[in-house]
Amino acid sequence: MKSSSFAIPLLLLSACDLTLASRLGFYARPRSKQLSGAFARRASIVGNTSVSNVGDVEYLTDITLGGKKFSVQIDTGSSDLWVVGDAPNAKDTGKSAKVTYAVGEVQGAIKTAELGFAGYTVDNQAYISVPADSQNKDGSGLIGLGPNYGSQVSDAVGDSSGDAVLDRIFQQNTSTPNYITFLLGRNDDPTDPPTGDLTVGELMTGYENITSQPKLPVSVVSSSETVNQHWQVLLDANGIVGPAGNDVISEFNIESAVGSTGNKKQLTVVLDTGYSLPQVPASVAQAFYKDVPGAQLVTRSELSGQVWQLPCDKEVNITFKFGGVSYPVHPLDANIDLNLTDSSGNHVCFGAFQPFNPGNGATYDAIFGMAFLRNAYTYINFGDFVEGTKTTADPYVQMLPLTTDSAESHSDFLKVRGNSPWTPEDASIGDRIKSHLPLVIGLSVAAGVLLLAGIAGLCYRSRKSRRTTFFRPTYQPLHEPAPEAYNLNAVQNQGGRAGYHPAYSNPWDSRY
Ligand SMILES: *[C@@H]1O[C@H](CO)[C@@H](O)[C@H](O)[C@H]1NC(C)=O
Ligand SMILES: *[C@@H]1O[C@H](CO)[C@@H](O)[C@H](O)[C@H]1NC(C)=O
Ligand SMILES: *[C@@H]1O[C@H](CO)[C@@H](O)[C@H](O)[C@H]1NC(C)=O
Ligand SMILES: *[C@@H]1O[C@H](CO)[C@@H](O)[C@H](O)[C@H]1NC(C)=O
Ligand SMILES: *[C@@H]1O[C@H](CO)[C@@H](O)[C@H](O)[C@H]1NC(C)=O
């Protein structure tokens, strides 16, 4: 690793360390490019709030409850607000609630207080008050931005006074357009800011174009499963483009595990700002990473199981497609640097798209967490997923691709990680014909040379779909349990970084 290229991440990481050490540092800059103004909370501006970035694995914004400031993680994958420590003038409802995340849980009394969020003020917002202790730091918390269906507070309270934050905002002024948008920055990106923004009911300046992107309907789970309703949409049937520019879904015969999906080639993807490493079917992760020189599928407890370990200087180009639009993933996201080492102490990186098994009865196939979401400005229209709404409108998502300048992202990667070129290869046509040889010979004996020419042409045209059958063993999905949380204690011991958030928000993240 060239020292010049390595110096950048080290600098960033040490700044990040300071951030975490002080905890005030939610507003410290990982890079010197932007000065403090951009970090200041835009409390006076209705509709938007800045989002700070902790090591690319947690995005925080400020809220107030009873006038006291809390720095809370933004989480589109859950639906409750909880904060650690007391808020002035809070009223106890006499009820309590527990929210269980993919890992860990939080519980506490349900209280109400005046909430300030993204420039809106909500009276008597219900939230879970988690007691401060050595692990739960006063002033931290999490704001769930998912559909109200999943809200435990709302369930426990039993009437509309327990509704989730966004529902309350949209209810109290029905003229407020019922959508949110967010943009997540990338920490070590040399050409774009590390921070982000979250807006409620308005678009970010300069990104108004998002409204002309295709509207992706939110896929609705069955009425018996509404608690599992997330902001989820369908990927295109040819919507996963691997490093060699190949159509991963066809090539590996990938099918949706979601029973209700009409076209099994369309994977259901949850958009989750609270989940660090996107979760994808094991065969998708394999297609992305297995041919990268030095790649190894390893088990890392702090990354909650299996993950592809990669040399940090190997660029991996992948793209997803929604509604016919391509969303290239920045190579700094596809091969992510979490400041971890292998068992010999060498600095290693990881394939951010982590293998997982959606399991039986799945309501989704993949979770597109932060490493994907950094590549798309995202708009979520709640439609009639607002409690008490009288209008009938389907919720939908629009996304504006952000990583469209491939020359820039390539050069970003070289600056930060160094240059170690490799050539991703889809099996060449020559290899295919060679591998087809026994079949081809058998057929030619039976059918004659003339027919052979036609078949060779056919094999060539349909090579993608036939490849799995003829050239590779069928890939066995890994039957591992659903991912547990990152072992944050382990990560903490390794340098005190913020937790990598695998779960639908991991409460332990706030314990710094
Ligand atoms: C990165 O890891 C090294 C050693 O494992 C540690 O000393 C350092 O503090 C870590 N940096 C961050 C930002 O976690
Ligand atoms: C309600 O929202 C509309 C549109 O955002 C705004 O113009 C109006 O001032 C709001 N009304 C109140 C009472 O906040
Ligand atoms: C936030 O809102 C204000 C006023 O509506 C606007 O001037 C500003 O540009 C917005 N910020 C972003 C990032 O869109
Ligand atoms: C975005 O807006 C610009 C002009 O404002 C236009 O030229 C461009 O085509 C738009 N892009 C999309 C995706 O709508
Ligand atoms: C990734 O894409 C960039 C931009 O198109 C290209 O320059 C680079 O060679 C690609 N790298 C690999 C390993 O495919």
From TrEMBL:
PANTHER family: BETA-SITE APP-CLEAVING ENZYME, ISOFORM A-RELATED (PTHR47966), PEPTIDASE A1 DOMAIN-CONTAINING PROTEIN (PTHR47966:SF73). Residues 59-390 form the Peptidase A1 domain. GO terms for biological process: proteolysis. It comes from Polyporus arcularius HHB13444. This is Acid protease. The keyword Cell cycle does not apply. The keyword Signal applies. Residues 1-21 form the signal peptide. Gene3D superfamilies: Acid Proteases. The chain crosses the membrane at residues 437-460. Keywords: Hydrolase, Membrane, Protease, Signal, Transmembrane, Transmembrane helix. It holds the Pfam family Asp. Coiled coil: none annotated. Belongs to the peptidase A1 family. GO terms for molecular function: aspartic-type endopeptidase activity.
